[in-house]
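Operator note (shift B, R.M.): manual run for ACOT9 thioesterase requested after the automated queue skipped it. Running by hand, logging everything below so the morning shift can see what happened. Input copied straight from the record, untouched. If output looks odd, do not overwrite the archive copy; leave it for review.
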Amino acid sequence: SAYRLCTMRKLPSLLVRTLTSGTNGSSALPDMSEVRSRLRDIVGASTNWRDHVQAMQERKALHTLLAKRQEDLPPRRMKDSYLEVILPLGSQPEIREKYLNVHNSVRFGRILEDLDSLGVLICYTHTKQETQPRSPLSIVTALVDKINLCKKIIYPDCDIKFTGNVSWVGKTSMEVKMHMLQLHDGDYSPVLDATFVMVARDPENKRPAFVNPLVPETPEEEEIFKQGELNKVKRIDFSTASLLKMAPTAEERNIVHDIFLNTLDTRQEGEETVSFRSRKLPPNSVWMEDAKLKGLQICHPQERNIFNRIFGGFLMRKAFELGWANACSCGGSRPFIVSVDDIMFQRPVEVGSLLLLSGQVCYTEKNYIQVRVHSEVYDPDTREHQTTNIFHFTFLSENEVPRVVPKTYGGKYPINAISMLYLDGKRHFAAVMKEI
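Run finished. Output pasted below as returned.
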């Protein structure tokens, strides 16, 4: 099972830094509302929609505080950005309703929102200038590298603790590792590990900006930093080998061809008369084109982030919930999230946008379901569609699920778009299984 292992790369115990100075007791730790309040203070964002444009205008003056070179910025240690944050579901029951789902467990979409906010704050902590109350940097989520879970159920009546720190730094980007633990019988036990990549931009969020270098202090931290370098290389390799850039391998072409042969309707007279279009569905299978789900979201001001764009965590929550429903309808039983990986934030989503979400079950194996959610904005004035995100979710269903089968084959090219989605889903699933 995917839940046997949850690697908690713990930093030394001296990495105990919170937003509040003083104690390490969970009662003294900041909660998620304090995280978001602190982010607004750092950026100078207004909670009032009408004042927000003016607040963003005032940020332009912060351009003068940007470093001309990374070498001009003081290096930081991993423990300098380390934060612990509490989600007091057990000790403050009044906040449970927001996190509760119909199965009496925690809504994972809400956790995605919290991880996104915490990741940004960790990066601001890394880049903090003691003499400046407001940061000249616009730090935004560029990529969710991976989130791996080791618990099927997140309980709605037990406190949750998030910890995290900057684990790797480039010139203008930062990798953040975060862990989530839940309180059981007096001890916090691991729930998930998350790796996000954040980028720093200028005060108007237009151009890249330099960030403080990171200096590992111990052999363990050296290993974590080295893993960050490897993660960067892996991302480049995975992108280079994308089906959008490189043809499927011989093995993958054979897989699609075998599926095609196994779905041909051979009840016709003579093999030479068999039509490419005459297909039959194998037992315990479903056509990929019947394993879709779509949704629409109007992006209201309430969902904006500190930079007056739609909050990345909100986009992740909506995509996850559609992906979960897609997996549920395809598998016929309750799915549990195993992994989130390779979420690229390709372009920001403006307030007022029409957000179109398209879910597709791309691959299934035993009880596992691989779902891809495509997110795009639609401009009603120009009638143009622009991709904003592509999300990849791996679910584990309570029961064994039908096999999804790409139906179309032939035409101008030997392998078409639906088969490519199938192969892409298979690749993502294989990568997740290797990781966990």
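Quick read of the result: The CA atoms of residues 70 and 105 lie 45 Å apart. The chain has two domains: 27-240, 250-267+276-434.
Leaving this for review. - R.M.
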